[in-house]
Amino acid sequence: MIELQKIIMFEIGQIDKLIGKYGILFEELKSREPNFNEIDSAAIATHSFYNGVEKIFELIAKQLDKFTPESGRTHRELLYNVHVGNDIRPAVIDEETYFILDEYLKFRHFFRHSYAFLLDWEQMKELAYNLSDTWKTVRGQLLDFVDFLENIEN
Asked: Residue 32 above 90 pLDDT?
């Protein structure tokens, strides 16, 4: 469990850096319309954020739960898996956070399977604007989970 804790903490640090680097851009875009390059940057950051969170969820699923999604809905199954507790661990994220992250998952899917010129700021701006607050919530729940891991070690 100690190794899992270390990896989770490393990934939390990586997402902290991501949020730090893009936070200024997101604040600026709250007061004006972005150009194409700024929309593209916001999309990359939003996509990267969810990928980082999902990487942590994958680690928990594989190393702790021994859970590997098998269907074509792997990403959705993974997100669902971490929001419910099981015999091994409590829920990693609460239900409200699950629904919030589901919107980021939908964006991730669009981003991965589309062209950048199809990005619509009106459709994605709430995700970008809320990225920092969403991360604060997810981060707090992940840190609680790391505490859980530490307690089962002792």
From this structure: yes
pLDDT tens digits, residue range 83-94? 999 999 999 999
Count of the separate structural domains present in the chain: 1
Q: What is the secondary structure of 90-147 as a DSSP string?
A: --SS-HHHHHHHHHHHHHHHHHHTS-GGG--HHHHHHHHHTHHHHHHHHHHHHHHHHH
Q: Which helix (H) or strand (E) holds 21?
A: helix 2-29
Answer whether 102's CB lies under 8 Å from 20's CB.
no
- CATH number, domain with residue 98: 1.20.120
Specify the residue for token string 């409590």: 90
What residue numbers bound the domain in which 121 lies? 2-153
